[in-house]
Amino acid sequence: MPSNHELIERAKRVQLQNYRPAPFVLTRGEGRRLFDVEGKSYLDFAAGIAVVSVGHGHPRLAKAIAEQAARLMHTSNLFYNDRGIELAERVTKRTGVFSRAFLCNSGAEANEAMLKLSRRYHFDRGDKERVEIIACEKSFHGRTYGALSVTGQPKYHEGMAPLLPGIHIVPFGDLDAMRKVVGKRTAAVLVEPVQGEGGIVVGSADYLRGLRELCTERGALLLFDEVQTCYARTGPFLAREHTGVIPDLCSLAKGIGGGFPLGAMLATEAFANALPPGSHATTFGGNPLAAAAALAVLDIFDEENLVEHAKQVGSYLGDRLGSLTDLAAVNEARGLGLLRGVELAADVDPTATLAAARDRALLLSLAGGNVLRFSPPITVTRAEIDEAIEIARRVLESAPKKA
Ligand SMILES: *Cc1c(COP(=O)(O)O)cnc(C)c1O
Prior knowledge:
This protein is α/β, with parallel strands linked by helices. The protein is 36% helix and 18% strand. It has a seven-stranded mixed beta sheet with strand order 4-12-11-10-7-5-6, sandwiched between helices. Helix 3 packs antiparallel against helix 9 and helix 10 packs parallel to helix 12. The protein starts with a helix and ends in a 6-residue tail after the last helix. The model has no long low-confidence stretch (mean pLDDT 98). It binds pyridoxal-5'-phosphate. Pyridoxal-5'-phosphate is lined by residues 106-108, 111, 140-142, 192, 196-197, 225, 227-228, 253-254.
């Protein structure tokens, strides 16, 4: 076996240098543990950015993928396939409020579908002026040009102009700001019910209900980006359940394939025909292999009662993180369920703190620049939460300061 160092040297020679990965090379995972090429183990509270919902190496998921790979992997959208149909049925039914699904391969793609459907919907109704999309500051919707244009974080726009026209960005959580911009030209309002990358910021019930009312009243669609919050990440199956708000369209990705790349746009029945044949498509989306993975994830959610589990361990994680706020290095602990953030004090170096946790074999990720994100697999246990908190406390007690 080559060493971490050898492999990283090779990576540096051949991979495009657009990332800053941790200085080791992962080769294996089991439950909430990851192992690098030298055999060192890590407690995984990053979960591949809130993706690995059922844990690493789940036997049922691995078996479903292997069996489907041997049976039928790809058909394209020229043909129906049994697994794609079954997944559309199961996932919409599971939400209780959506009846239509468009399957794709990533979060950005699911958001592109929402943006395109929104404009096309108004266009087909003869309302050709309704082309504008309103989104929020500190939002994150993905890296493709449409999704990037509605992402309210200027750092991601640097050197990428010109972006998509017809976008307005307003502060998140500010209903009055929204009232000022939503009008006759608004095709849709797009929000994350809980902002993830922006720093784990929970949208209040008043705000999200207010948006629903405003959009209905002014004829704009309401779009929820639940790419990060779906599949019990915040407790309930979808984060929208915290407030009861039903958006017109909703994007899912991250957790739905348990690590297999997959996205979905869900819609209420009124939008069943809003994208006429030929208006939008994907070659790989909804392929039987990805669908089989997602079906196995839904089976595991049922069998292991993961929504209920997420609510219980999620509130436990919240309590335990709350206990860290006595430390000088911590400003605040916030979030919902198993999507939690610890905001660091102004003098603490976030990147160095992340590295210090890593050195103690706890993997976390950063959100919003100065927030340590805790997003373990949904299958995480209380004992593992205790272990993570103990490491986090030790790291934060002597948190590295900014230079
Ligand atoms: C990760 C994320 C995306 C982008 O998903 P990709 O699969 O990376 O394209 C979009 N929206 C939210 C809220 C996300 O967290």
